[in-house]
Batch of 4 targets.
Target 1
Amino acid sequence: MRRALRWELALLGHLVQPRRLRGRGPRPRASLARRCIALLGTLGLAAAAATGCDTSADRCGPGTLLEGDRCVPSEGVDALTCGPGTVRDGDECVLDADTSDGPDASDPSDTAHACVPDCGGRDGLPRRECGDDDCGGSCGDCPGGEECSDLGRCYLPGCVPDCRGEAATGPRACGDDGCGGACGACDDPAAPICTDTGQCVAECVPACLGRACGPDGCGGSCGDCAGGHGCSVHGHCVPDAWQCGDGRYDAGDHCECGCGALDPDCALPGMALVGCGLDELCDDAGACAPRVPAAWTCAPAFYDDGLYCECGCGAPDPDCAEGDLPTLGCAAPLVCGSAGECVACEASCDGRACGGDGCGGTCGSCGDDEVSGAPLVCVAGACVEGCSPTPVLCETNACGDDGCGGSCGACGPDTHCLSGQCVPDPGMSCGGLCGVTAPGGCGCDQGCVERGDCCPDYVSRCTCQPRCDGRVCGDDGCGGTCGACQGELPFCQPDGTCGESCAPLCAGKDCGDDGCGGTCGACDGGAGACNDHQRCVPPGWLCWDHYYGDRAFCDCSCGAPDLDCQTIGQTEGCPLGVACVAETGLCDAAFCAADAQCDKPAWCVGHFPAGAIARKGVCLAPDPAGEPPGAACVSDASCATGLCAAGRCRHHCQQDADCLPGQSCLGVALGDPLIGAPIGVVSVCDGALALGSACASQAACGDATCLALIDPVGHAPLLRCGTPGEGSALGGYCDGATPCAHGLVCADNACGEACPGGQADCPGGTSCAPAALHAGALAAANDDVEVMACTPD
């Protein structure tokens, strides 16, 4: 990733259970109590009472009793008395179609008595696949030989329950036991969600990235396929034309051909072809087609055999395109032409002293060096010493075999040799992590040099590399110089050489050296610093100064418009496929502020400028490989939501209702991971703070603290009683990289309390003065969130 500010998702595929096809079977009938419970949960007390379900203690009829807010049959079925609109049927009450008080299923306008079918999962199980829907209908039927359990799962009689689980996750604590029962239920409010692996968790990340259907790994679904079509094991909907069974489409096992549509497996390398004859292949339409052209006159086995270029066979042999395979069918000096016929060869040795002439001949051979006696080798048509003074391979390779019995070098710790180059081991790279710590533990920040724990590619990825090859003077591209000119050649030329005269070069430049000892201008009048492209960087610019006007990308979300956005369409800093508005420097995207604004299974992920101060997300599938919200983090890339704020992976929100029970929605200041500068405020769910009432002084909170927080909507100061969260304690050191505990204020590098009550709130040695909860990076006057806080004298 070229930009530290760019948040990017990688598409991942995961195996899921194939769809089970169900047959028809008897439908068990639900009890009155079960139907009343369903109606109470969906229609409310009034509607439930209208269907014969008593809803209060004095309305529970004979044979029923009140449990919570529901009337259920009491012990002794013989005493059961059915309510209005119902009649007794054996040991239960059922709806009486002849009674006007009951719902009329044939009348769509009878909404007062309408029943809402319920096939949702229970006891941590997925959606019910059989049994009653609590409205007299069915959630599905089991195939012949299978029965429906009380939990709405099909099973074979005599089945042995299995709750062993997977090796990576351990025994199943919840969910289906494989025989229509459950391995347990998620009763702990702190971990109420049952994953598809049978584990109870507080927050489950749906594995729907790149998937259109099938289970999401959290007991839900990534979507349904239109028209009842099946879902492949990789989460892709089976096309209408597919005729070979849902389980065989996109299964990752074979290239299934002749099935009416192209199998995605046919694009995977090494897939065996199934469904076609020996001399057939699968074409782009998924149909079997002859492997050998009809015009081919030689043996079919010779076509594209990878051994010889067969010529004169009536059609071109693909083997001839390889260039290094011997030719059959043409006698020298003829060669095989592009149409598969023998043609005269035109030899060429232009600029070549050795090697082939293109017609089976040679342009010369290499002997021994006349001085050293060392053997010469032919490289790109030239004779060079292959091993002396240094092996030729080592001119381009940094490691591995040198071709002369030795090695071009060894790779250091945390790296390995790949194609002659040392590359970082996984997790030990600074790619996209400049300014923070890589997952492998090595550093990508400036302090890693002093600590001695920099990642192997820290210098190349996170520092500027001077460019002085072939130059003796002028700028090195990193703010330094390649040298100075003097004497008879006092002027540095544009190519980095010294000359007698000089012509200023200031076209397309705002500032800096003009190449002749003068200047192209200065950055003043509110303009920012002069970068290495000699452009004045705007004061609100948040990305590296080098990126402004670098003529490489349109850098968006950098706090100010990039000059390159006026001429370059390739955008960095926006969600994939989203353009940048050149006039504002903001992504042209439909932003979201909470998960509720996205269609499931998408979440509101990432964070991008949506105004002068606010940062919002976009609706996308979360990264199933990332950490769930609430986990500790050092970078956005490590979070499933792509949002790391105040050291934790977070959910976007606008109000407390967008968060889990016990959490609050608060504004949090974000800092750029590369340079530490504040880049805006994002509203996220926070469960670490137990907030009380609003406070106008520290004394108003008693033993608690009057916390200085940011309102999630207006981004104004928000003062509430509570206990400070994670971070430096009261009186501790703070800066852009070391924040104060959430609720305290960093003023003059010390963590202090808010002082809404004035000087009386502050201890000795401090004064009540304005301090920034968010130091604005943009030029707008309203871009600072300030609060009165105790500041060291």
Note: Residues 655 and 665 are 5 Å apart (CA to CA).
Target 2
Amino acid sequence: MNPRRYLPALFLLFVGSGCAALIYEIVWFQLLQLVIGSSSISLGILLGTFMGGMCLGSLLLPRLIPAREHPLRVYAALELGIGILAVVILVGMPLVGGIYTAWAGEGITGIVFRAVVAGICLLPPTILMGATLPAIARWVESSRRGVSWLGFFYGGNIIGAVLGSVSAGFYLLRVHDQAYATYVAALLNVVVAGIAWLIAAASPAPVAAAEASSDDVVATGPRAVYIAIGISGASALAAEVVWTRLLSLTFGASTYTFSMILAVFLAGLGIGSSFGAWLARVVSPRRAFAWCQLLLMVAIAWGAAVIFVALPNWPINPSMAPSSWFTLQLDLVRCALAVLPAACLWGASFPLALAALVEPGQDASRLVGRLYAANTVGAILGALVCSLILIPVVGTRDAQRVLIALSAIAGVLLLVSQPRDATRTVSQGVMGPVVAVLSALLLIAAMPALPGVLVAHGRWAVSWIGRTDMLYIGEGMNSSIAVTKVHSSGATQFHVSGKVEASSLPEDMRLQRMLAHLPALVHPNPKSVLVVGFGAGVTAGSFLTYPGVDRLVICEIEPLIPQVVSTWFVKENNNVKNDPRTTIYYDDARSFVLTSDEKFDIITSDPINPWVKGAASLYTREYFESVKQHLKPGGVVTQWVPLYESTLDAVKSELATFFDVFPNGTVWANNVDGHGYDLVLLAQVEPTRIDVSSLQQRFANPAYQSVATSLTTVGFMSPIALFGTYAGQASDMSVWLRDAAVNTDRNLRLQYLAGVGLNQYTQASIYEEIARFRKSPDALFVADEEFKRQLRDAIR
């Protein structure tokens, strides 16, 4: 039988393999983020380990597996091994999480331990993933036509990755959970392995799989191609980091947005790879590879212009769409406009580089392994350097300038290292590199500036043009932040990743004070406090007004927020950053809570909106259980729940999850003009009882004068006014919440429920639904009948 007849079938196998791989990648990243955190350092460790494993696999297979082994049997064994290891990771992750929680430390020790945990989990399966393409390379002949099929296989793998990204982000994880997604991907691996084994049984190993020439044949290949493909990989992953960050400002940083951006980027790689595989047959692959790098200079500049200039000025109001899915369709088109041109060129680069190196008699497996490793090493360096160094130090604008320069270097290197063509003069050979360098300099100089209104207002940027003064714009390691002053009200606003997180507006100041004063007044004498999320520092600073508080711990993932943003709210936050009682940990709050042994009288949490990717991990049952374990006897916990830009199902999920852990929980409303705005959930392990006479004694103490002032400045003129925000308790809502989806580590259901409500403003109707179940709170208070009567009047 002619092995070539099975090449189209192998293309489909690589589609299935790529689909499974992306499902695993998304699931594993979610699982490991729950354990080691979502900071840039943690994500960098995850990405480096994942891609490093693939690099090792591509290099090790040709050295460890003899060429006499049938390529398809090797490929089948690899696919089967990937599926088995994926199930092992799913089952074993709780054990890994327990080990990490028990042994993880802070600083360098913590970083090293995170790397060890990620390596133990990800290296075995990713090494097998990286070995699949070199394994199948032994099936094709060592010729330009033969390796062009490898380009098609590579493209098929990426097309499968697109399918995996979309299916995981929009169906498997949204409707089911991580276990279901893992089993689907493992089944794909088994099917792919079975079909590969059947083809191997029907067809003998081709000549290409015989023992090939030694290492030296490949080693003598042009170094320029290896260097250029490494640079191409670096610029591709760095651009993905930059553009994902910027486009999440434009579209909203929901899990759907991230899945869409990844799918568009991968689709471009797949299209480009297939085109490059065909192009390698009809033109000089080395020259075409050089032109790909040079055209990338223009494509990167084009992407920057679209993101910085075009998209922020498009007259689009996301809230006008009848459904979030219609907005997503528009975002898909806008994303493709910015990302697709460059992604196609990066995709075409790999098969062209492969064709430029191939010579008859080579071991194609070694060639593919080396080239794939060079590309992957570049990708690792590009992603890590960009996210951890370039963006925090020089910003996204200059990062893209660096990418243009890198593409120019790769293109010029390929041009000047080409074998001498007798038909070209020296001046003709010099002209191309000179024009390339001048073009790069022109594109770098013309790079538009990052618009501050995009950082501040994101998808609403066009509606805020000319309405605010930009006081500060910063791009940190984990997020982009801004501080603005609104012309109409004079309010100072603090923005994270394109949305307002805190402000000096009355409704926001009232919420920030409630998150502090409600638990501090419920607790008889709070001394130690943990605040999750610094924000403007107002919540944390409000605790400093209590004379008994002697330790205030704040967890904040972005260092720029306390270091810079807090200075714009010094009056409101009591200069909390510089108070001697304050300790700030710059880390993922979940990771801190899981690994800390310290217990607190109060834990208050004001994280970013639950529709933001990664934030749902701070609303899970497991997280709340950990919080409960870190409360001292009589301790109080509060949790912020937004009603705006949410859905009824999302809010019910947040309440049901909280009450599942704290069945004595209560709900307090921060309303605007009597209508819903956001909520504060409050609970203790034991039933809450508020002694009013004790409160009166505390306020009679002159040391509590600053507490009273802090309350009155936001409209709470008495304790009755504060407690009049009561909106219900768990026992009142048990029947209503019976069908609510509990948010757990294994499903992270909330991020999908909340993501649908990204541009919806139905907070009034959501609050009315909650208020229907409110009953008298008399049992909460130890007070006389007159106080209870006044409280009931205040609530009404």
Note: Residues 41 and 483 are 25 Å apart (CA to CA).
Target 3
Amino acid sequence: MTQKRQVLINAIMSMVQIAVIGGILFVLYRFLLKTIGIEQLGIWSLVLATTAVTQIANLGLSGSIVKFVAKYIARGENENVSNVIQTAFLSVGIFVALILMIGYPIAKWILSLVILPESLSSALAILPYAFLALWIMIVTSIFQAGLDGYQRIEIRSILLMGGALLHLLLCFMLAPRYGLMGIAYARIIQNFTILISSWILIKRYVPLLPIFPSKWNKNLFKEIISYGMSFQTMTIATMLYDPTTKALLSKFGGLSMVGYYEMASKMIKQFRALIVSANQVLIPVIADLKEKTPKKIRSVYSTSYNLLFYLALPLYSLTIICIPIISELWIGHYERIFVIFGTLLAIGWFLNTLNAPAHYANLGTGELRWNVVSHVAIAFLNVGLSFLLGFFYGGMGVVIAWVISLALGSSIIYLSYHIRHKIPLIELAPKASRIIIITCLIGIFSFFIIHHKFFGSFNTIALNGIIILLFSMIVFPSLWFHPMRKRLMEWMTTEFSNKKVVM
């Protein structure tokens, strides 16, 4: 199998994974809304956000594994591949366990600050289970990163889809009887199943791995930790994103706002992941190119960015159009808070999505400086603006602050990449896609006018169905006649017919 064909398969499976998991989340959250209610869902969201802070103990090693596994595969050093995975697993497993024990009382204290007393006991009851599920997930990420290093991302996608389906079935069985505790049980079983499956699969590609990881290599640890510390800085900064937003949203807006924010955030992130996951396959590819033909990296970046822009703008625009009908289908009624949160988050995450090719190119080459600067900037902007706008404008101000922070901080990555590599900034809006920009803006503007004028006069689903049809008629021609569509179709057809194509 050629490398290009493997990249294509990885990208397609990554998108299939996101679509399948998105569908599962839709069913799951609708079920949980009816079973435990929006406030209990808000508690679960806050607990997960609080425990996520302890991912500082990851040391950035799971992010490093992809690069170093790909590096040693390219060099044919199979023993080092095995040693890298074992060293990372043992380091992360032990250190994360220690941090979780230290962080448990701190997490209890944080929850007591942001959750009302009558809801606190429910949050504290599931906290230990959330910590255990997190530990399993973090150590599993080492094996999954190993699969990514072998450019077998499609295998990881299948694992995650199977895990999500298992989690859904377990919630169906356990949530009605045990409530929040049932969801916690389901998460632990899901994560443990994925852990065992990931270990069995990575061992197929690395026969030198023992049954139980037991070898720790000091020199390899130093090598991957030096790269991983940049990841760690990004991890620490990222930990201030969701926990800060949800904690302040709980304080200034209440648990129901947290619940609707959680749903809107999950929805938009799934749409975002549908696009970004395809770009993520570039990390091992670029790591391999750096070892062999570094001159090709710029061409790969340009192709990736143009394709991403071609897909992202209409997808995010359509998402904004569909939010009211999603509210009807998912929540059961038009929920104004959910719709506003979803629209704001779609704008912020679109601007963030544009940095994906530069972000992953930097990860592949090991040039992480501007990735780190971007994450730190987002974190500090979010903390400062969320306090300020939350104090004056309540929960809505907190979400607006997050969107502003996300958009401004994310721009650092793609602006710096273009400047460093002497790529004109005007290419951030590719010439071939400028008609799409105009048609999407017209489509969104038409949506707001029609929705405002006729809301309440027609059934929401019928009204939005008409709007979606109108939007499609406006935007589709610009997508169809775009040169990227023809190039993408030719690439897919050629690769799957085993013919050679110049990318």
Note: The chain has two domains: 1-239, 247-496.
Target 4
Amino acid sequence: MGKDLSRRMRAPMPLSQRTGLGRIFRAGAWLLLMASSSQAADEPVGETIYQRHCVRCHGINGSGSTEHYPKALTGDRGIDELGRYIGKEMPPDQPGLLKANEAEQVARYIHGAFYSAEAQLRLHPPRIETTRLTGRQYAQTIADLMVAFYGPPARSNDRGLKGNYTTVNKNGDGKQVFERLDPQISFDFKDGSPKPGEFDPAEFAISWNGSIRAPLTGDYEFTVRSPNSFKLHVNDRKIALIDAWIQSGGQTEFRGTVRLLAGRDYPVQLFFTKAGQGVKKPEELRKKIAPASITLSWKPPGRNQEIIPTSYLSPAEPRETLVVRTPFPPDDRSTGIERGTSVSTEWDQAATDAAIEAVGFVISHIGDLSGFAEMEKKHEGTLKEFCGRFAERAFRRPLTKEQRALYIDRPFASAPDVASAVERVVLLVLKSPRFLYTQLPRTGVDSYGVAERLSFTLWDSLPDDTLLNAAATGKLKTRAQIADQARRMCNDPRFENKMREFFVQWLKVDHAPALRKDPLEFPDFSGAVAADLKTSLDLFLEDLLHDPAIDFRRFLTADFLYLNARLAPLYGAQGVAGDSFQKVTIKSEDRAGLLTHPYIMAVFADTRSTSPIRRGVFLARSVLGRTLNPPPDAVTPVPPDLHPKLTTRERTVLQTGAKSCQSCHGLINPLGFTLERYDALGRLHATENGKPIDASGSYQSRGGQSVALNGAKELARFLVDSDEVQTALIEKLFYFSTMQPIRAHGPDALPNLKRDFLAGDRDLRRLMASMATLAASAPPSASQASPPKVSASTQGRKP
């Protein structure tokens, strides 16, 4: 041993060892080796664990297995949260089998390989889909198609209807006495006249003219109450909606129903006469003069009947609008947002029936539309010209030579007469894919395609004259030009109507079931109260969406409600009288805009109590954009009678306390608890079963950060600045507006829109203009657009 030692000592040492650098080199090499081996081992270890314990249920690429777990393994948990869940719950037959570091390693592998949004984007790149018109878009498009031939719509900033007051002589001739703007039609002249001394109380007439704007889409029931003669026309100047010109039987209340589209102005005419009723002379018999009175009210869809508010009336007189009554089947909502990406026999038949309905409108209004009411051979040239303009409007672009031959020349050449030719053209155009589909793949720069994408993104309808002229003159080629048009279009009433539709879908109240509450628990609740609450929400949205800058923060923090005399006592407001709604500031420290609006709170509640689960699911899915799986088994809520001494919060904890529930209810419940101060009618309450309300809750973000929340106000303050809320809002709004996933426009689309949203002070008008500019600037090519899904029942049929 000594010889070996002496031999080693005599051997010359390398320079690196003699200078001490050897130790540094060896240590550095060891560290590099360890780091690289650890990095290399991370993925194989996680993948190995996945192959050993997870692949049987979740499949090789996380796509699932039909035998054990058929769903794809995707979600929005961060790596840390996913690792904790795996460590506690997986594998299902041996939960807790994996050590903490093993659970983290397999979570890291799963997250990067196929679980996260980024991984799904890599595995399944989204594509821009060819879409058909939804039922809502079809109705709007047909309406604008007809209105386009009338020129710019009549508009006025004045409110009310123009009243023309006349005397009537024995021959029935009238002489105007005066004209004025009446804010509402609600008059009781008794046995007098509109202006004593200028009218004979027994012989006068009034005609009211102007327009009415529909706040909602649906059937409107109009009611006229009068013992006198009258006619009411709504969106039809030829045929009266209610005709009581000749009365009998003493009836004084008359009703008629008409379908209207939201956000549009419709012509309205009301003719009223007192002539020939009652005794005129002598003076001592004036007391026998028949009374004169008239009121005009309506019942919008889902609302209570009311005298038509002044804000919906205008003296401007627009032309008639075609509102198709053909019912379309419900559109696909599997993603939570309405879209038109599939074709069925029912939709195809509805499109045919609606086209036939449109043909009837064109023929009956051909004089207004074309300039010639007589469809005779001598006017064939003019009518062909009209048909050509009709096809170009419907297709959103000029006709090619081949298209003109197919859609115009051939029908006129083969039809037995000019009227039949016009009918055939209209039907052929409205059944063409060029009318029924948007996002059709095209090649090259296409300014008309840009115009189409802008109009359907912002209006759900056709381009207007300004937009088509910009396309025709090459003023939609640059991004700046497109953005200018988008900003202009965001000030159109159709834009506000589309935004309202987004919010009712976002809030999940567009198809909410009729509100019902236990009459013993809530004796003041009624069907009329339910309708008033819905009206209150509509007016709240209308108020915020009408602002020049639509600040998203106000939707979550506004401190006002719209209340009438029926609602005010329920929600602690003073000084509100009558059926008309008034804007009332609520001084409660816990009122937080939409989140605590009484209608929202009542919808997301049970019949007898609140529902932290339903409210928490709404907040998690709609507002925060979290992914929640449905419960594995149908669960009936624990009825209050079963545990009468427990609060709703305590019953919820009891019901969802099982370990298997916590993967979802650990997120849902703490969010829902923050709204517990609002009862099932959306009223503030401080106690339940003699116990103070506990509105404390929390939220754990995707990144694993936890924030404590107490009450709606703290919740709203957190949500307003939440990056997750902003992401969810932009993704949902983009999908709603374009019916395309935002990620199909590239990885930078979402972060760029978020940055623009924050820079624009959360202004939704500016955000929508940016979205429309992005969507319109990125035309779908033939290689990236996917065809619509066709159901088996329509295979082989032309759409």
Note: The mean pLDDT is 87.
